[in-house]
Amino acid sequence: MDKKKNVYVIGHKNPDTDSICSAISYAYLKNELNERDGGDYNYIPSRAGHVNEESQFVLKHFEVSSPSYISDIRPQVTDIEIRKTEGIQEDLSLKKAWDIMRAAHIVSLPILEGEKLKGIITIGDIAYSDMDVYDNMTLSKAKTSFKNIVETIDGEMIVGDIDGVFDEGHVLIATANPDMMEGYIEPMDMVLLGDRYESQLCAIEMDAQCIVVCMGATVSKTIRKLAREHGCRIIVSPYDTYTVTRLINHSMPVRYFMTSQGITSFRTTDFVDDIQSVMAKKRFRDFPIVDMQGNYKGMISRRNLLDLERKRLILVDHNEKTQAVDGFEEAEILEIVDHHRLGNIETTAPLFFRNQPVGCTSTIITQMYMENDIPIPPYIAGLMCSAILSDTLMFRSPTCTAVDRLIAEKLAAIADIDIESYARQMFDAGSNLRSKSAKEIFYQDFKKFNDNNVNFGVGQISSMNKEELLACTDKLLPYMEEVKESYGLDMLFFMMTDILTESTQLLMVGERCKEIIDPAFGVSAGDHSVELPGVVSRKKQLIPGILGQLS
Predict the structure, then answer these.
(1) In whole angstroms, what is the distance from residue 300 CA to residue 204 CA?
(2) What is the predicted pLDDT for the residue at 267?
(3) I need a surface site. Which of 253, 297, 351, 453 has the fewest CB within 10 A?
(4) Cα dist. 266→71, 79, 173, 282 in Å?
(5) Average pLDDT over residues 41-57
């Protein structure tokens, strides 16, 4: 059976409770529908930012794990089909490596030490060993095992220990008479020779550490006895001397020719955009992949990038470019479920888009459960009820509709919670502001907007304690100046909303703030703040007022 395709259900950056709970609840609904209809998707609840304290309280109360964090949705190496090329050990012979590559129709092999990548050997490296090795000490310099030598020349070691290593001496061919051989054979050399008794005897007496008898010639008992006495190994190969001479260099271990420094490898978490430019500049055909712990996972080539599939997204609780997860332009957006104004996200293909003028995305998702006759588990009901209470400020916001209230009450019954007492606990958890830094307070719920080429941002916190809200002013205003500069915003607003009095103290940073806010709300603002009675909703009150003045 084919592996199911992942679809990430994700809310906006700096997520509020509705963004978090909608992602979890809609992913659950989609998985239930997928199971019922025999689909091939796996829906994963995700988030594009930090979980604020109100949302943490909700998740803990209903014993639900936080959605997985995604900072950038661009395709990553892990999304590519990684070729599972098996790694080899560094003492494997060149011939064995060549055989593996030829059988698998590949040009590179990873050399591993345990699970860690130690080097790369390529067909080019093996060709180099064949064409450019003229030193008759290379075999010993490479510390070639006798096991590799015997295996490469299809031989048999009839005297000596096959587990040893040839790490000292030359490789010589005995074609001269014994008198001349005495002049160039040195102790510890390896001598390739035929069936001549005198040549075999001479090599042993000159303290060669190994003789290779070619053509499968018979070795006498006397020569074997002398070899044992002198500590000389004897290998018999069925090949002629020319063939053995050609093959024997292929017995060297791959570590002697592998690339071990400056290896161009990629991590599974690297973004494809970032590796493409690197791959284009390198002459290599294949590139090793390692995980975050440095363990080897496989190989990729440029060809693998041709079959790359974009990641799949469902957006909940937003449809603005500035609020979407980074890299969303390179993903395939399948659906959007939202309750805000129409934003500026564009797609290359038609998609399912559901947008309703209600107070909360979770209200819409609850309706979708009912429409599809999918039972709502108590913990899912609790999450969606929490989202509605949060977004509607416990039904006090002008965004709240009769549908929101009716659905919240049904969900509360399923989740077995008392709306009044539970909402107070939830708001208290989210408005514990005195001990928080300006950054922690600011990013609890912050969104960026663009209209008529004006970039502005609006943050909001809500509390039932007015003194606690006002105490945040002194630390928020200096931090807002930093945020305005870092994002390149023209204006920055921050709503400190008192749930009980249903009013907002609005903090402002930017030259045009006063000229926008005064006519929009019929007030006379100070340099950096103004009281807005009856204003509690960013979506339905503050944003429309600002946009009306900008237009």
Answers:
(1) 51
(2) 93
(3) 453
(4) 19, 13, 46, 13
(5) 95
